[in-house]
């Protein structure tokens, strides 16, 4: 899969997962890899980018089994971005599916 296309899809997937619940970084990375295979460095760069843009926030949480965990949660700006991305995805996928089914 094209690298840039994959990054865009991963950003939308991260926001989509975060719209459902708060995730700690490792758990979110694992969840993403169930959908699209990626490496940790790419995933963590996407997390940082989304935080920098204000689409999600991170915080640290105590762990009963070791060091503190870095957790992520979506912001209201992130929810807006997710809605925009979903609409754009639906629009382009409808057009592509229409073209390839002819």
Automatic annotation (TrEMBL):
Organism of provenance: Mesoplasma coleopterae
PANTHER family, sorted: DNA-BINDING PROTEIN YIZB-RELATED, PADR-FAMILY TRANSCRIPTIONAL REGULATOR
SUPFAM superfamilies: Winged helix' DNA-binding domain
Name of the encoding gene: padR
Protein name: PadR family transcriptional regulator
Stretches assigned to the Transcription regulator PadR N-terminal domain: 14-82
């Amino acid at each position: 899969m094209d690298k840039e296309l994959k990054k865009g899809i991963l950003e939308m997937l991260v926001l989509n997962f975060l719209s459902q619940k708060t995730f700690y970084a490792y758990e979110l990375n694992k969840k993403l890899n169930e959908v699209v295979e990626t490496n940790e460095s790419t995933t963590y760069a996407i997390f940082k980018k989304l935080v920098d843009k204000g689409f999600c926030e991170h915080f640290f949480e105590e762990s009963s089994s070791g060091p503190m965990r870095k957790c992520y949660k979506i912001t209201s700006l992130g929810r807006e971005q997710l809605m925009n991305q979903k609409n754009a995805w639906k629009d382009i996928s409808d057009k592509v599916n229409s073209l390839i089914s002819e």
